[in-house]
């Protein structure tokens, strides 16, 4: 059977990775207009965001094991069809209750693309090649949650919320076509289990792997830093510092590039452990400085400068941690990918409301510092004292292979 080209896989996996964040975030600028359209409260409209995040987390736990059992292609095609149908239902929803329900289904469907994209990369590549492929996926995964609202904001006034969902429908159709062209990456003889009990027993196997759990938690806390930034920055930049929505979008774009560049540069490290450790150390130090600066009421430029460094160091961990987690559970890739993605979104959902407690500058700074410190702790637990010394002294320089 003819294999897909590397360029095709890169494009397909990249689009699948960005799909989930675009599902959740692209329509954010249209929330006020949706409240008027459905004649409902803002909290009810925001419930659609909550249900889609829930779907993205739960859907990965569903599609991950399914892809280990049935291969990658069939669950991917099912996920894309489910996305198209649920998106059409969102567009033609007659009330906010229907919209919120269909957003849950839409999130579940979008999760299929995210979890299966990591599994395909693990099927096709190993070692440094896997790290390079995941570098692209990691860069997109870091940029997409930040870039999606910018893209949505550019079209909101001209096409409205239903137009935004039509764009999502178009993306889903493109990915459905790509899914049919995709050549199965998991041979039948390598697929796991014959029964549902065996299929979901893979979760138990993954959770017994101490290193895998530490890598997943490290990624989860790093995602906590990202979602704390996403949830707080609109209020800090526009309300506290008094910038316009357009200026805020420019800052958002610059910060998104910072995350993407860091994820791409992380493959220059000789070992993925070195990249994650360096990123965690830098992220923790910067987070504590940012916490002190925010509490003391720093200027905008100090805030933005520290934020650039914080997001850059955080981005350094995305690719390498994903590679480490997936390598440690290569035989159980679909389930491992599911847990990795679901826990990341779960951390995001838990952390986002915390920045709204009390003074937003203080709560954001404390959330940054706490998540970064816990992320570093998880990585140190995974490496142990001896390996930590080795990677700190010999693994950090860039440009070595």
Please explain how this structure is put together.
82% of the residues lie in helices and 0% in strands. The radius of gyration is 20 Å and the shape is globular. It starts with 5 loop residues before the first helix and ends in a 7-residue tail after the last helix. The chain has 401 residues and is mainly α. Helix 3 crosses helix 7, helix 8 packs antiparallel against helix 11 and helix 8 (210-240) packs parallel to helix 12.
Q: Summarize the amount of helix as a percent range.
A: over 70%
What oligomeric state is this? single chain
Radius of gyration using CA atoms only: 20 Å
SSE topology string: HHHHHHHHHHHHH
Quick check: average pLDDT? 81
How many beta-strand runs? 0
Distance between the termini: 34 Å
Keywords:
401 residues, 13 helices, 82% helix, 0% strand, globular, disordered C terminus
Structural topology:
Elements (H helix, E strand, L loop, with lengths): L5 H20 L5 H7 L4 H29 L2 H19 L4 H29 L2 H55 L14 H12 L2 H31 L4 H21 L6 H24 L4 H29 L4 H19 L8 H35 L7
Helix pairs in contact: 1-3, 1-5, 1-6, 2-3, 3-4, 3-5, 3-7, 3-12, 4-5, 4-6, 5-6, 5-12, 6-9, 6-11, 8-11, 8-12, 8-13, 9-11, 10-11, 10-13, 11-12
In short:
By secondary structure, the protein is mostly helical.
